[in-house]
Amino acid sequence: MGIPVESVIKCLKKIDEGQFDEFHIKSLLIDVRSVLPKGSCLLEIGDIIDHPKKDRGINLDNINGIISGITAHVETGSSVEIRQTFTGEEIVEELAEVLTEHIDSIQVGNVLMNRKNDIILCFLVLLQNAVIIVNDFEVKTRIFAGPDNELWWQSIIPTELFKSEGVPKGNFICTALMTTSIIDKKSAEIIFGENEKAPLFDLERSEGAVKLVAVKAD
To answer: What whole-number distance in Å separates Cα of residue 135 and Cα of residue 156?
Structure first.
């Protein structure tokens, strides 16, 4: 099964013109879904958008690995390596590769890479506040300002999921499932501050650039 070329081209034109939002990116995800391989980052994101409470997939596998690794570290002192499931840059590159394979135009990759940061922000908005079900516990997610110029899609793992007595219960361990380097996130830094609550975000376009704007706080 192929992809609906006409629909994809319409979205690409909007992206090229800088007149797009998260709904155009969601439309692209729907259009390419049938040609995505199992384990694909884009397939995972599409599933999360369709099922905001998700009990399978590569992010669940990553969280289970994090829980096992931290538990082993607490109990035995073994080293633990915590990695993101994917980066924002990898997602855009995968989307460019998939579309280039099915659209007869050398410009597809250029269009997406030229708007890479804006597209990544759209993905963050689509992913915000998704919930991953781990052993009947809800692992909530949020957008979070990381170090330097990074924005994270971050999981908030209840410590009840850790069986080791060395992990205090009633707390949370936060890890990044998706990381991305966004050069201009001054508005996000002001929004987050030291507040641990997860605000909801919308996109605001100003002078050709897309920024995250808080629209509601929990």
So the answer is: 14
Residues of the chain with confidence (pLDDT) below 50? 183, 185-196, 217-218
CB atoms within 10 A of CB 17: 10
CA 95 to CA 87: how far, in whole Å?
Answer: 13
Strands, E assignment, the chain: 53-54, 86-87, 131-134, 137-145, 150-158, 172-181, 199-206, 209-217
CA dihedral 39, 42, 43, 49 (to 10 degrees): 140
**Angle (CA) 101 107 113, round 5°:** 90
What is d(CA 213, CA 215) in angstroms, rounded to the nearest whole number? 6
Number of residues that this document lists for the chain: 218
Long-range CB contacts (within 8 A, 24+) of 151-154: 151/88, 151/121, 151/124, 151/179, 151/180, 151/182, 151/185, 151/188, 151/212, 152/84, 152/176, 152/177, 152/178, 152/179, 152/180, 153/124, 153/127, 153/128, 153/177, 153/178
pLDDT tens, 115-173? Answer: 998 899 899 989 988 999 999 999 999 887 777 767 889 898 998 998 888 788 888 88
Annotated domain spans of the chain? 5-217
